[in-house]
């Protein structure tokens, strides 16, 4: 049977070409040779997925310096029908660029994507203390904004290599605060059957806590700890209805088809008034979870066999 | 419909007629009209069950004053193939009896079952400070021992009403320390399929702890607490191989066919190097367990349905 | 001795007059009649405190919609010598304003403080889908930017009442997503002796977790739970040295001079490689903590008395 | 310097000479050359201490096979004013002895201390299936009972070496079930100031649980676990007022003058409606507790210093 006539797959990402998001998408083997659709912002990217205009969207979810991309976390928490299917890491470096002939001392308005700006702000506060910040929709668009006279931009925060795409000069390199900064991206599709474990997986959830229980967060964390499931991320986001109410963004080591993770999720589901499963997918860093014997799949299956035998009376109850 | 040809069921109990154990057996409706086999000690009673000589044995397992009947706990922990199928409570009161004509001041040797003796000891230490204790095999046998001249017994600790069976005089009544004392009995059979929950059940286990984990008992207890399963008994017994190694005797509220109890048992089984299931059976006091919503059977089933939908991608992961 | 010649106290806040931060400062009775110093950004405000230029600074720390003001959280975590001395809540409402004669359809560039912009973005995406965002340093400055021709601003997100200060027309009211939105502010001074408890207090901490312990966050939370201390905020912020390392921003109910809080802090301090105490201060909402008997001050003192007696042998060890 | 005129110290123990209890007392260097007072039972030994007739009493508290000596545990829980000041281990071996000329087949009545009898019962059930048990007040008294014609004793369970004191023949050696059996003894005095830690200490408590809290035992154990204090013994004993109410017998590693143990005891005291401190004393096995850095004395002191500085404002709150 031939797939010759199959429509190509379509990927939305924060464009244009040259962004870190594009660099993340380049890490996806299945995306090679397919249609890449640059968009202007997160909402557009996720909307493409929801409407079926695209098969998947690559979005930034966390930065090692600036923390969670809260607008992306909130979108995943509130838009139904989405599923994370992959995770990718991209090192983050920045240069300050300007139109040829501009001196650093001339810089008054700096275009930059807000996440990039946060990481370069310390340097900018030193080098251009009176600068103002104009929000750009992407790191590449910041450079493009230099050539839109209506914007009045003097300099732009952009990725290294930007001078290959635009007629700009580099005023300064390495302007981000931390040379080891990295941004974590996730590839998001509509809800699909969960893939198989690779042995180095991650599972993402959004969980609300019951309101009437002191120590509810402790109880939530114990659902994971009791099954030997480590968390790589725990962040709180306001639910938004009033001050002091939060949902928790959780990344757990392991795959929902791992017995210990499934059991932990059952515990979380029984406990939480609202839990969203966002996906189980291979970890970007390929680090396998450390699993003690008492939490491996065989131990879970043995326990179920034992319980069945005990109830049927065919086992005498001895371990 | 006729059961005429069915062999009668046979029950072993600590005899002779008149013991508290017999009083416990009288509480078993199914035992009425069947064969009751009085035996001399716990070992004989359980051996009857193991060999099939009897269908079940009634044994004392705990006293509200003296604590666990450790020899019975140890027997249940070490003899394979046994199952607790019922629980019964018998109020415990004692009289001191003697051959007619004996005065309290004449009493030098007192026959008594060790558990009875422990409860009456304070009174005896006051009334007959120099008495010696001769171990009797049952509370009724203690009275019988008065008429065995080779034993040199002067008085016996016996249940009220004993004078109906033996030619004895009551020297003193109410000699046990606590007027509200009660003994808990269990009916033991060979391993059989577990019966159905009644809504007021108890589940008995023997559990050994992993050796290499500090806080292992805490982890064990959390297996129950995390599922809202209360314990009515937690006792430690030496495993016997060396000082400081214990197994734990556990009675938990609920039935192994209750979802929360089954889930707790799976957790215990995964964690423990050796766990023995001793039975799920109706509680003697008929007190129903208090179950919060998040631990009831429906919540467990809903969580499993949710997880299945999430894995298949037919649910969008929202609660 | 006369205070007549005492220098007035000086308060820095995000200006100019009319900002929500100014509204928060108006809630501070001690600030009345003192010097109020409007500044352009958080860094300037905190710097005034560090250098002694101001006695205190009012800063926004959390919004009920947008979450923690991460730059403020990170500043408090990394700048030594600061102390929170008060907490204030300000309801947050926004209007969209423009120079007289501007129609909504003319709006291309919108000035707004980033937190305000986040709350009004949904409305703007609907009403002006192609708008661009220019970052303003405050909600009032956004309106002022309308009159700076170098900025090319068409409309501004501003607080209600702004038309009293600037020659603007209101294009739309109530443009924030949630009508109940509120922003939480804290008043920050240099380190000073902690004040006395009021019975409705809050204690703020920044805590790093030990790296070598799975379940470390669980252990941290148990330090509070074991003393009956509820948390009103738990947020994670990247430490910044590498992906996956977080510090935790914690607000706990109660005052460091409450015994249970002091004991919890001792536990946290023993456990954490780095903990910063940011202050104990009256809660803005004046809600008193619910304290069970076993966590009140008397219980703590009684236990210490008992332990002393036990060690000295003057108490027999009975409770 | 001379102590010539000091009154000798007086030690009560379960006599007569030759018992395991005497062997335990021989391990006490301070008891050498003092007055040793053999008594008939536990009650008498403890009464000597309470009345001041003796300075201390040596009592058996646990056996590696038979478990806790419950009557001793209950006595320590209910008699006020006692303090454990030392712990000793004695290996337990037994021989069966009789008057010269007696054959094993002649044995009908066997004298034995109940704890000894429990350990030899399996052997006796095999070698003399129809034997009866006469309770002896000590292992040595069992041999003496052979020569009291009023008792009708045929054989006695006694310690090896008994033939040096009585004219008996050994019918069988090594009749106890476990060749590694050991009994743990404690030396008990009136309440005295607690001694200093040796680095390998144990602390004994009796603790009742609050009635109104599910999971109360878990909370109790967490008081120890949270401070890194391991338990070497946890046993439950009925309080005696009704079925299902227990107090807990606890031996914890460490000394009440160790910071982590003191802090755990404060936690227990705040939580429990009734806690009895029974003493901190050197462990018989001289095994030092394993203490992690976060639970050592310096860590506790550092935390207190930090908290004081934080409250006074002389430390900026940084760790």
UniProtKB/TrEMBL annotation, chains A, B, C, D:
Coiled coil: none annotated. Gene3D superfamilies: 3.30.70.260, Periplasmic binding protein-like II (3.40.190.10). It comes from the Bacteria. Pfam families: ACT (PF01842), PDT (PF00800). One of its GO terms (molecular function) is prephenate dehydratase activity. Pathway: Amino-acid biosynthesis; L-phenylalanine biosynthesis; phenylpyruvate from prephenate: step 1/1. Keywords: Amino-acid biosynthesis, Aromatic amino acid biosynthesis, Lyase, Phenylalanine biosynthesis. Residues 205-282 form the ACT domain. Residues 10-190 form the Prephenate dehydratase domain. The keyword Transferase does not apply. InterPro entries: ACT-like_dom_sf, ACT_dom, Chor_mutase/pphenate_deHydtase, Preph_deHydtase. The keyword Lyase applies. It catalyses: prephenate + H(+) = 3-phenylpyruvate + CO2 + H2O. It is an enzyme of class 4 (lyase). Its EC number is 4.2.1.51. NCBIfam families: PRK11898.1 (NF008865). This is Prephenate dehydratase. It comes from Leucobacter manosquensis. The lineage of its organism: Bacteria, Bacillati, Actinomycetota, Actinomycetes, Micrococcales.
């Amino acid at each position: 049977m031939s797939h010759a006539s199959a429509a190509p797959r379509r990927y939305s990402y924060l464009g244009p070409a040259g962004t870190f998001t594009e660099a993340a998408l380049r890490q996806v083997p299945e995306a090679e040779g397919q249609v890449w659709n640059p968009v202007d912002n997160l909402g557009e990217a996720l909307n493409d997925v929801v409407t079926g205009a695209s098969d998947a969207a690559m979005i930034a979810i966390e930065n090692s310096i600036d923390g969670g991309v809260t607008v992306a976390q909130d979108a995943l928490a509130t838009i139904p029908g989405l599923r994370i299917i992959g995770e990718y890491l991209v090192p983050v470096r920045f240069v300050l660029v300007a139109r040829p002939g501009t001196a650093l001392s001339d810089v008054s308005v700096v275009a930059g994507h807000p996440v990039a700006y946060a990481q370069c702000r310390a340097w900018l506060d030193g080098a251009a203390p009176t600068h103002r910040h104009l929000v750009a929709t992407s790191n590449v668009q910041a450079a493009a904004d230099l050539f839109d006279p209506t914007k009045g931009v003097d300099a732009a925060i952009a990725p290294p290599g930007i001078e290959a795409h635009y007629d700009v000069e580099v005023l300064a390199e390495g302007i981000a605060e931390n040379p080891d900064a990295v941004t974590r991206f996730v590839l998001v599709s509509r809800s699909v059957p969960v893939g198989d474990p690779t042995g180095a997986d991650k599972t993402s959830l959004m969980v609300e806590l019951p309101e009437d229980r002191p120590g509810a967060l402790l109880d939530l964390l114990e659902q994971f700890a009791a099954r030997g499931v480590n968390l790589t991320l725990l962040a709180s986001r306001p639910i938004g209805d009033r001050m002091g109410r939060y949902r928790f963004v959780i990344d757990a080591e392991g795959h929902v088809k791992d017995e210990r993770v499934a059991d932990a999720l059952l515990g979380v589901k029984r406990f939480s008034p609202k839990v969203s499963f966002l996906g189980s997918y291979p970890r970007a860093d390929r680090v396998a979870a450390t699993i003690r014997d008492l939490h491996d799949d065989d131990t879970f299956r043995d326990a179920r066999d034992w319980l069945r035998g005990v109830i049927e009376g065919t086992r005498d109850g001895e371990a």
